[in-house]
Amino acid sequence: MPEAPVRGRFAPSPSGRMHLGNVFSALLAWLSVRSRDGTMLLRIEDLDRERCRPEYAAQIKRDLKTLGLDWDEEQPRQSTRDEAYLEQFRTLGALVYPCYCSRSELLAASAPHAADGRAVYPGTCRDLTPEQRAQKEKAPSWRVRVPDRVIAVDDLLQGRYEENLEKACGDFIVRRADGVYAYQLAVVTDDAAGGVTEVTRGVDLLSSAPRQRYLQELLGFPQVTYCHVPLLTDASGRRLSKRDGDLDLGALLDRMTVPELLGHLAFAAGLLEKYEPATARELIPVFRLDRLKRENIKVRDYFPL
Ligand code: GLU
Which fold, 7-81+185-301? Predict the structure, then answer.
């Protein structure tokens, strides 16, 4: 059977300049799509109004173009999509309920933690009566009820990943008390709206995949394929972040050309056997899923930094 057309996406959050880790996952997402003649989407994920800025979004677009990572369609920015999220929120119907707990109450109530340190919501507001709700004076956040069953995601790179959401996180927030929709709801709504078939992103988001799968099920959305790629880390194994200013793209491109940068990343990913400079287009034919490393990668093993 011929493979269905692939639609992938970049989904950057414009809270700063891209750093080496963002470039790495963007490169792999792009190669995965381009190596199968797929369609690439760009979506600016600016739900977090405090941290995100339009000038960072513009910079990310310039940077992607400089890197040769192009896209075919641009989706609307998440900050303009409240109506679409509201529609899905309404579709969840009685599965969502208002939660009045404060952060500190939750922290106090949240032992035991799930394996990855996430707090498990203890269900405090799950069964409040309408009278009890009417007595609360603050704006609630809204949580979706989760079932006591295992939700599995067959990740192209990491293999099967499964969680019982009730034990791993409990009922989770789909709309915050300030009215902003939660990442989990926004991302599945936007992926479905864009007809996205494949989500390639950093493995730090693997633990979100069962929650996203669950929402896809509830909302009747197609199930996307997940491919969670390793993270780049420092020598101690800590993931690179925007705090590592020397690894932001501006600083990197002061020190090396785009083909040098991409060649190092392709070598680090396992796509090249040894370092050699390469443009993004030149890497398309060498992209193969079975060459990719699964484990996190210490950047200084591959980069002359
Ligand atoms: N916007 C998220 C980030 O920049 C990515 C979300 C996703 O790929 O699902 O970390």
Answer: Rossmann fold (3.40.50)
- Topology of domain 83-152+163-183, CATH: Glutamyl-tRNA Synthetase; domain 3 (3.90.800)
Each residue's pLDDT tens digit, 164-196? 999 999 999 999 999 999 999 999 999 999 999
The alpha carbon of 13 and the centre of ligand 1 are apart by a number of angstroms equal to 6
Please spell the DSSP secondary structure of 249-279, one letter per residue.
Answer: HHHHHHHS-HHHHHHHHHHHHTSSSS-----
- Rounded Cα distance between 280 and 235, Å, is 27
Pocket test for ligand 1, best of 7, 9, 13, 40 (most atoms within 8 A of CB): 13
Q: How far apart are CA 302 and CA 244, in angstroms?
A: 17
Ligand 1 mean position to 17 CA, how many Å?
Answer: 14
C-alpha–C-alpha distance, residues 213 and 197, integer Å: 13
CA 201 remoteness from chain centre? 6
Of 41, 52, 60, 187, the one to substitute when testing ligand 1's pocket (max ligand atoms within 8 A of C-beta) is 187
List, for residues 208-236, the tens digit of each pLDDT value.
999 999 999 999 999 999 999 999 998 88
- Give the separation between CA 218 and CA 275, rounded to whole angstroms: 46
